[in-house]
Amino acid sequence: MDYDLKEIFGYFDAEGTYKNGEPYGSGHIHDTFRVETAEPDKDNYILQRLNTKIFKNIPELQDNIERVTVHLRNKLKKLPGSDIKRECLKLIPSHEGKTWIVDKDGNNWRMYIFISNHNSYNFVDSPDKAFEGGKAIGRFQAMLADMPAPPLHETIPWFHNIEKRLEAFNGKIKEDPVDRVEGVRAEIKFVLERAEEMKIILKLGDEGKIPLRITHNDTKFNNILLDENDKALCVIDLDTVMPGYVHYDFGDAIRTAANTASEDEHELSKVKMDIKLFKAYAEGYLSETVGTLNDVEKEYLAFAPRLITYTIAVRFLTDYIDGDNYFKIHHKLHNLQRARAQLQLVLSMEEQYEEMRRIIKKLT
Ligand code: ADP
Ligand code: GN1
Ligand code: MG
């Protein structure tokens, strides 16, 4: 689809003149473009056409992001030496004072300042980077801990709820809308064999042993920007910031930061969890949060990567069986390839689980 990015840019109260716009990044949800302005001293921008099939209530989505970014910015202002434009997303208002616009074709768009001189990684090749990613998420959670009421909107209900995800998975298997179930029997078996043990985090929550906190819920590593020296800079992609368990953020970050291969690697022998990257991320994360987590939260941190990697695998496999209606795909078998790689990663985590537990115990 071609969009008139110059016209859309014109709806917003931005400084600078539109020069050009190009698709940007490798997110699976929105259509994201980088807009360059003509003046070298003016900011560049990120324009996003929002995915309204997935985010059904755009006013609530944008309200969350506005509240979260205002809260973070107020905190940063009090910290000497912070670089506010680069350490926190900044939504650009429209001429009407809203944080998004609807174009003449009914598409919803929002605009952010483009965070300059950042490094973004789809996978991580050094413990130092993993450590910095952990610090970024730990700090993010700490800064949001005192968000004033009301609670944030639940932008996607039951987002990480594995019971609901498994219900959807089983429903699609029964329905088999595009005749793909027969080809994925082995993957289905792998998922179902582990279904029971994955419910433990929900159970601990129901029993009141772990609290709901404000979590990011989409901490894959390319949503954590590092600066030009690979130091923690900014956590982006705030669409799913809402109440959750800390395990969701810790698990999803390890799923991506400690994987030796890409999320969709087709050569499964390359997919492993690197325990050194796990340890480095955990060190960075706990350097910011160890004082606030309760004992049960700490005890189950090592389990979190297994849960979230499994959950995302279930979602990829569900989407494959459903005929690819949720995640953006680049070829016909993409969701299956992603699911297989994630299940392989679950296996690698299972093999190293005792060591993961030892590391967390030592750090806490
Ligand atoms: P999606 O939900 O589709 O993943 P994101 O909000 O994560 O969308 O944006 C996609 C990509 O665009 C990010 O992974 C990142 O590379 C880039 N990006 C998003 N916002 C910014 C920003 N403000 N500055 C720089 N890059 C950004
Ligand atoms: C999506 O938005 P993005 O690309 O950062 C998805 C996450 C998945 C991830 C898998 C709103 O993340 O939940 O973990 O893909 N986001 C949404 O790569 O569903
Ligand atoms: Mg993203």
Bound molecules: adenosine-5'-diphosphate, 2-acetamido-2-deoxy-1-O-phosphono-alpha-D-glucopyranose, magnesium ion
Count of individual domains: 2
Radius of gyration: 20 Å
Looking at CATH, which topology of the largest domain would you report? Aminoglycoside 3'-phosphotransferase, Chain: A, domain 2
**Sequence of strands across the biggest β-sheet:** 1-2-3-5-4
| Uncertain regions spanning at least 5 consecutive residues | none
CATH architecture of the largest domain: Alpha-Beta Complex
Structure, described:
It is built from 13 helices and 9 strands. A 5-stranded antiparallel sheet has the order 1-2-3-5-4. A two-stranded antiparallel ribbon has the order 6-9. Strands 7-8 form a two-stranded antiparallel sheet. Strand 4 and strand 5 form a beta hairpin. Helix 5 packs parallel to helix 11, helix 8 runs antiparallel to helix 9 and helix 11 runs antiparallel to helix 12. About 40% of the residues are buried. The model has no long low-confidence stretch (mean pLDDT about 95). Bound molecules: adenosine-5'-diphosphate, 2-acetamido-2-deoxy-1-O-phosphono-alpha-D-glucopyranose and magnesium ion (MG). Adenosine-5'-diphosphate (ADP) binds next to loops. 2-acetamido-2-deoxy-1-O-phosphono-alpha-D-glucopyranose (GN1) binds next to loops.
